[in-house]
Automatic annotation (TrEMBL):
Cellular component terms per the entry's GO annotation: plasma membrane
Molecular function as annotated in GO: transmembrane transporter activity
Annotated ranges, domain ABC3 transporter permease C-terminal: 291-406
Record protein name field: Putative ABC transport system permease protein
Record-stated family: Belongs to the ABC-4 integral membrane protein family.
Keyword check for Transmembrane helix: yes
Stretches assigned to the MacB-like periplasmic core domain: 21-248
Length: 413
C-alpha cells in the first residue's frame, strides 16, 4: 500500500467518524488561530506604526556636516571638515534624486525676531530655507494656503510659510495671516501658507518656524558660510540600511573622500522611534508565539488522546489488515497520515480564521491607519506546525497500532 492509498484510507476513516473529526480539527484550528492570529495582529499594528512614522519623517535620514574631533591624540590638532556647500548638496540631489526623494535645507538663523505691524515674536524663531521636497519628507503639512511654486524656488521670491506658534504670536484670531506681509530679518515676506501643528519631542521647535524658498534663504544669509543639510526619504522603512550605504557612497564621491579615511560628513537616521517600536513588537511576537504554542500543545495532546481511542476502536480492523499482509510500517503510516490530514484540515480552517480575526483586531486597535495584512510567513509557519503536531500526536498511537498482535486483534471485541 503506497502513500496515496494510505491517504485515501485516512480520508475514508475520517469520513466514517465525521463528528469526531470535526471536533478534533476544530481543536487544531483554535490553536492555529491563536498562533497565526496573534502574529497577524502584531504585524498589522507594526505596519500601521511604520506608516505613521513614515508620515512623521521616520523613514528618512539626514546627511550633515561632521562634528570636529574634540579629543586630541598625542598633541594632534582637532580635525575639522569643510561644510557641505551648495554645489555639493545640489550635485547629491541630481545624482541620487532618481533613486530616492531628496530635499535640501539651510538654517538661516535660530533666533530671529519676526514682526507684523506692532507685534513681534520672541527672539527664538527658526528661519529655514527649503526646497520642494522637504515638507513631505519631514511630515510638515499645509493647513491652508500653498507650498512654494517652481517660480518661488527658482527666483527666491520673498514668500514664506509659517508655523502655528508664529501665527499665535503675530496675528489675532480674527485675522487671516494669508497674503499678509511680515518682516523677517529686515525683509518683507508675504505669507503664502500656514502649517498644521506638528509638535516636537524637543519642545515644539517644529511649530516655531518660518520656511522660505532655498534661494531666498541664501540671499538672507549672504556673506555667511552656510552649511546645507540633505534629507533623503526611503519609500520602505525596511530598506533604509541599504539606501544609507548607497547614499554614503554617492556623498563620498562628491566630497572626494579618500579610501581608508572616515567620512567627511555624518548620516543621522530619523527612525529611532520606529526602531523602538520594532523592538517592542519583537517582544510581542515572542509572547504571541508562546501563547499560540501552548494552545497548539494542548491541541496536540487532545489529538493524541483521540488517536489512541481510534486505535482501540479499530483493533479488529488492524488485525484484518495484518492478516492480509499489511506490514507494521504500513499500519504506522496509515495512522500518521490520518493524524496529519486532520491537522491540515484544522490548520487551513485556523489560518482563514486567523487572517480575518487578526486584521479585525488590528483595525479595532489602530483604526483607519491599519492596513490589511496577509501573513504569508506565519501562514507557512502554521502549516508547518500543523504537520509537526500531526507527527507528534500520531507517532505513538501509530507505533502502538503497528505492534498489535494480529491473532489477538481479530479476537478483540
Amino acid at each position: 500500500m503506497n502513500i496515496l492509498e494510505n491517504t485515501r484510507e485516512a480520508l475514508r476513516s475520517i469520513k466514517g467518524n465525521l463528528l469526531r473529526t470535526i471536533l478534533t480539527a476544530l481543536i487544531i484550528a483554535i490553536g492555529v488561530t491563536a498562533l497565526v492570529g496573534c502574529l497577524t495582529v502584531i504585524d498589522g499594528i507594526q505596519s500601521s506604526v511604520n506608516n505613521s512614522f513614515a508620515g512623521l519623517g521616520a523613514n528618512a535620514f539626514d546627511v550633515r556636516n561632521r562634528d570636529i574631533y574634540k579629543i586630541r591624540k598625542q598633541g594632534e590638532k582637532e580635525k575639522r571638515y569643510p561644510n557641505i556647500d551648495y554645489r555639493e548638496a545640489k550635485l547629491y540631489k541630481e545624482k541620487y534624486g532618481k533613486a530616492a526623494i531628496v530635499g535640501l535645507k539651510i538654517n538661516v538663523t535660530f533666533n530671529a525676531e519676526v514682526k507684523y505691524e506692532s507685534k513681534q515674536t520672541n527672539p527664538n524663531t527658526r528661519i529655514m530655507g527649503t526646497d520642494e521636497n522637504f515638507f513631505d519628507i519631514k511630515g510638515f503639512k499645509i493647513n491652508s494656503g500653498r507650498i512654494f511654486s517652481s517660480n518661488d524656488l527658482e527666483k527666491g521670491t520673498n514668500v514664506c510659510i509659517i508655523g502655528v506658534d508664529v501665527i499665535s504670536q503675530l496675528f489675532d484670531k480674527n485675522i487671516n495671516p494669508l497674503d499678509k506681509e511680515i518682516t523677517v530679518l529686515g525683509q518683507k515676506m508675504k505669507v503664502i501658507g500656514l502649517l498644521e501643528k506638528k509638535g516636537s519631542m524637543m519642545g515644539g521647535g517644529d511649530d516655531r518656524v518660518i520656511f522660505v524658498p532655498l534661494e531666498a534663504g541664501r540671499k538672507m544669509a549672504v556673506g555667511r558660510n552656510l552649511t546645507y543639510d540633505i534629507v533623503t526619504s526611503v519609500p520602505n522603512i525596511k530598506d533604509i540600511e541599504n539606501v544609507i550605504e548607497e547614499a554614503r557612497g554617492v556623498m563620498r564621491t562628491i566630497r572626494q573622500d579618500e579610501l581608508g579615511f572616515p567620512d567627511s560628513f555624518s548620516i543621522e537616521r530619523s527612525d529611532s522611534l520606529a526602531k523602538q517600536s520594532e523592538s517592542i513588537t519583537d517582544i510581542l511576537r515572542m509572547a504571541g508565539f508562546g501563547i499560540g504554542f501552548i494552545t497548539l500543545l494542548g491541541a496536540a495532546i487532545a489529538l493524541m488522546n483521540i488517536m489512541l481511542v481510534s486505535v482501540t476502536e479499530r483493533t479488529q480492523e488492524i488485525g484484518i489488515r495484518k492478516s492480509l499482509g499489511a506490514t507494521p510500517f504500513l499500519i504506522r503510516l496509515q495512522f500518521l497520515m490520518e493524524a496529519i490530514v486532520i491537522c491540515l484540515l484544522g490548520g487551513f480552517g485556523g489560518i482563514i480564521l486567523a487572517i480575518v480575526i487578526g486584521n479585525l483586531f488590528s483595525k479595532i486597535i489602530m483604526g483607519d491607519s491599519a492596513s490589511f495584512i496577509i501573513p504569508w510567513v506565519w501562514m507557512t509557519l502554521g502549516i508547518t506546525v500543523c504537520v509537526a503536531v500531526g507527527l507528534f500526536s500520531g507517532i505513538y498511537p501509530a507505533y502502538k497500532a503497528s505492534k498489535l498482535d494480529p491473532i489477538e486483534s481479530l479476537r478483540y471485541e
